[in-house]
């Protein structure tokens, strides 16, 4: 909710940097601050126009990040289902955090430094 409120107020073109590691499990941790990642988003008129990050290529760190996120998601789902008046949040189920064992095995063999960038296509503007 806090993230959505901030996004709506970003009218001028702005880069948002250094996302928390908890919400960016595929991004490489920032060397100067282990709690943040090497990630940025570009916002214009309150809309995300680009998302980019340095990919985490350390297999041990990647496995730890994915396991922590997977376990947190499962714990939240268990807590929600045990509450008698809980309402289901559709946005929370928009993705499933899985442990991609093939991907983790490939990382163990070695992966060069990489980055990823996703953007909005012209027809979405």
UniProtKB/TrEMBL annotation:
This is Aminoacyl-tRNA synthetase class II (D/K/N) domain-containing protein. GO terms for molecular function: ATP binding; lysine-tRNA ligase activity; tRNA binding. Pfam families: tRNA-synt_2. Keywords: ATP-binding, Ligase, Nucleotide-binding. Residues 66-95 are annotated as: Disordered. It comes from Thlaspi arvense (Field penny-cress). PANTHER family: LYSINE--TRNA LIGASE, CHLOROPLASTIC_MITOCHONDRIAL, LYSYL-TRNA SYNTHETASE. Residues 3-115 form the Aminoacyl-tRNA synthetase class II (D/K/N) domain. InterPro entries: Aa-tRNA-synt_II, aa-tRNA-synth_II/BPL/LPL.
């Amino acid at each position: 909710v806090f993230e959505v409120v901030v996004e709506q107020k970003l009218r001028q073109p702005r880069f948002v940097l250094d996302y928390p590691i908890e919400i960016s499990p595929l991004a490489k941790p920032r060397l100067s601050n282990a709690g943040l990642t090497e990630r940025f988003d570009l916002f214009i008129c309150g809309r995300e126009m680009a998302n980019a990050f340095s990919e985490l290529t350390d297999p041990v760190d990647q496995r730890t990040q994915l396991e922590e996120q997977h376990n947190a998601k499962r714990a939240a789902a268990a807590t929600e289902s045990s509450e008698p008046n809980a309402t289901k949040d559709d946005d929370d189920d928009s993705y499933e955090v899985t442990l991609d064992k093939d991907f983790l095995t490939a990382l163990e063999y070695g992966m060069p430094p990489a980055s990823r960038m996703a953007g909005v296509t012209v027809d979405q503007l």
